Amino acid sequence: MSGLETEMAIDLVKTxxxxxxxQNLNLFxxxxxxxxxxxxxxxxxxxxxxxxxxxxxxxxxxxxxxxVQSLAKWKRIRLQxxxxxxxxxxxxxxxxLRPDETLSPIHSIFVDQxxxxxxxxxxxxxxxxxxxTVDLIYKAMxxxxxxxxxxxxxxxxxxxxxxxxxxxQDLLDRYPLLTPKEREHKIAQELGAVFIIGIGDKLSNGEPxxxxxxxxxxxxxxxxxxxxxxxxxxxxxxxxLSSAFEISSMGIRINKLxxxxxxxxxxxxxxxxxxxxxxxxxxxxPQTIGGGIGQSRLCMFLLRKEHIGEVQVGIWPQPMxxxxxxxxxxxx
Length: 332
What we know:
Helix content is 34%, strand content 20%. It has helices spanning 3-25, 72-82, 127-151, 168-174, 180-191, 256-265, 275-281, 295-302, 318-326, and strands at residues 27-29, 35-37, 54-56, 64-67, 89-97, 110-119, 164-167, 193-197, 231-238, 243-252, 288-294. The protein is globular.
């Protein structure tokens, strides 16, 4: 594809997928912040170690602003403000900065996601509802791939018709000698598309499959399969990179009990005094499910690109630009 064709294809992916996602999950499009006030607990700290970009706000007195890293907590507050009913939700074009990200063909400092959140009932805080929601997201991915491949004959569909849910403990049992990323590689290569459940809690080997902050996804509740975790990652097999490829992180969100449990497990009990956590403790926030779906990640995958810089304007080291340019891959 030429540069202009790629830009047109990016627009097709984003327009098609966002429309299908809105329809499948019953979402309303809303505006979103690029920054929030620090020390409120509203910004997300992802794995718990990432630093947010901060800046002074003289007009706010002594307050500091922080550029968002994702909107998991903000969306829940927004749902409460909008007064949406069970079964209704919101989606926004989230743009964030993650300065600690290690630059690679799939990682950049700039992050763009469809950040979505939906009100659920207490009876829907279960594994079956989580998986049924994943299926609806995957249907939007399939429809987008179909339309993209119709528009660009050089592309062929590669996604399997169904996505397979599998718990991270099952992956460990199946591949006990492999690292978590190696396990993802093996299962994605075998099945094409998987939803890996249970990200954050310790597995039988004493280690989590991957890190998660303690105060947005519920990763500690015991579920019907006897394992813990009401969250997970959508991972597909990327034949261009010959590797597993994460598209989305999502989950049923914490309630009061799971938040207190997870804060204790992570040694973060002091967060209970923050604004967001106080709202949750006083049960002012609705029960929700939500997640982030990588916009550039999905474009990169569906357009069969080798580097995320082919579909996203980014800051790239000159040696990286030169190395890819020598292969005919131009980073925007």
